[in-house]
# Entry
Amino acid sequence: MENNEDRVKNTYKKICLYDKIMDLPWWAKLAGNVVWGFHTIGFIEKLLSDIPDDFDGELLDIPAGSSNFTLEKYKKLKNCTISSVDYSSEMLEISKRKFEKENLMQIKFYEESVYALPFKDSHFDYILTMNGFHVFAEKKAAFEELYRVLQTGE
# Structure
């Protein structure tokens, strides 16, 4: 029987068209207004503005998807190491092509489950998770694993 993660992974194999559509700024605005009831692009820009352009630590982006919304921000993060994690190899491949085209080499790609991340405890200074937490079937387990790899400031 297919578990939720596999169902999500297999769905993205079929609907990579979604990300191609979301690459169109006018469509992303329309979809955000209709589906979510607010301008999602503005919200995403505000969210990403919280990461300083001169940030020089370790950032985890999970689920990274195809980087439609993060590419422009990541171009500015020249001193930061970014770990781009997704359960979908197709999404990561799309993302990887975009970053290679922009010659962004500070980004590493990992096809992994949010429930068993291959990073040591307290590894990341910053975790970005947007447009995807809803697909994690076990929210508490996902949150606990993300908390494990996040520096707590102690």
Notes: The helical segments are 4-14, 17-22, 25-36, 40-49, 71-76, 89-101, 139-149. The mean pLDDT is 82.
